[in-house]
Amino acid sequence: MGFNCGIVGLPNVGKSTLFNALTATAAAEAANYPFCTIEPNTGRIGVPDDRLDKIASIAKSQKIIPTQLEIVDIAGLVRGASKGEGLGNQFLGHIRSVDAIFHVLRCFEDDDITHVDGSVNPLRDMTTIETELMISDMESLERRINGLEKRARSNDAEAKNTLELIKKVLPLLQEGKPASAAKITKDEESLFAQLQLLTSKPILYICNVAESEAETGNAFTKQVFDYAKTIGAKAVVISAAIESEVAQLPLEEQAEFLESLGLTETGLKRIIREGYSLLGLLTFFTVGPKEARAWTITQGTKAPGSAGVIHSDFERGFICAETMAYDDYVECNGETNARAAGKLRQEGREYVAKDGDIFNFRFNV
Predict the structure, then answer these.
(1) Is the terminal CB of the chain with fewer CB neighbours within 10 Å at N or C?
(2) Angle at 192 between CA 225 and CA 79, to 5 degrees
(3) Which of 149, 169, 146 is nearest to 159 (CA)?
(4) What is the rounded distance in angstroms from the CA atom of residue 211 to the CA atom of residue 239?
(5) Contacts of 287 (CB under 8 A, 6+ apart)
(6) What is the distance of C-alpha 161 from the center of its chain?
(7) Does the global pTM surpass 0.85?
(8) Radius of gyration of the chain (CA)
(9) Residues 41-95: tens digit of each pLDDT
């Protein structure tokens, strides 16, 4: 399991520049990290993780296989997309298929790059896109009501429950609030997911700034960060121009270039870190002489569920998980010494996986 995200934004905010730079950076960061273009606007990349390289070095693994991130560069939105303006229907359809939305906002001034609304105002731009998503969600729910009411009159329990859920969500959308603002109970989570509402998806705001402001941000980015806090979203500051330059440099020169700008890592790594946090994801590893591999799971996943990410037979026939923490593996310089030092444990079905765990699953089918 990896995760996929859709990069959205108004025209001329740096969305496609960022997409091209991030995918090129990931391809260049290590030869072992795969990258392929699935379609002209979709990239699948290996998630950079220094821990994976470290354990592979210790185990002398022949192959390194990172977990995957899929990035979809969704067609630029125009006002009226919910009514089919521009590439509206295509735009909205692509958003429904992603796990999270990466919303690129223009936070830089440049007289040579025209803004579709005539001036730089990231909060206005944000509202333009999010209004279109809310309108689309409202219309989607309103279209379902008649059919659900007919089924509910026939004592269809699922239809009744879905109607109740719509009655909870629709007024929020009509008030200009996203579906994510609804208080969804655990029992409603599955039905809520089936509604496939655009405004229910987690959002990471990506503030695209000039090179000189990549380290500190600016007044525009402060507005975005302040707003993101009020709705429980995340935000990062990125310079698409810098990312484009980094992508052209040999790996050994990238760190020096970033340091000269007061930066310690690529924008790709910051985006991935915030994206994982936003979606409640973590990484565990498997390692041996043949391969070192990273796997992505949701926080709270227990040992059998973690095993199931590798293969369903591992979960079905789960016996136990031999587990050690990443820090212990590195400190002991591998599994053999970790076992001798008592750092390798056997965990059962109720063990909840932690970020950086190194697993060896025992199973019988």
Answers:
(1) C
(2) 50
(3) 149
(4) 6
(5) 55, 56, 58, 59, 61, 293, 329, 335, 358
(6) 30
(7) no
(8) 23
(9) 778 777 888 999 999 999 999 999 998 888 888 765 555 544 554 444 556 777 7
With beta carbons less than 8 A apart as the criterion, state whether 38 and 105 touch: no
Return the residue matching tokens 């980094």. 246
In this predicted structure, the answer to whether residue 101 has a pLDDT above a threshold of 50 is yes
Q: How many residues does the chain have?
A: 365
Q: How far is CA 199 from CA 142, 187, 321, in A?
A: 15, 20, 38
pLDDT in tens, 150-182: 999 999 999 999 999 999 999 999 999 999 999
CA distance 280 to 292: 23
196 CA to centre of own chain: 17
Helix (H) or strand (E) holding 305: helix 303-310
**Amino acid residing at 333:** N
Tell me the one-letter amino acid at 46: G
Q: What is the pLDDT of residues 222-266, one digit of tens each?
A: 999 999 998 888 899 999 889 888 888 887 888 899 999 888 888
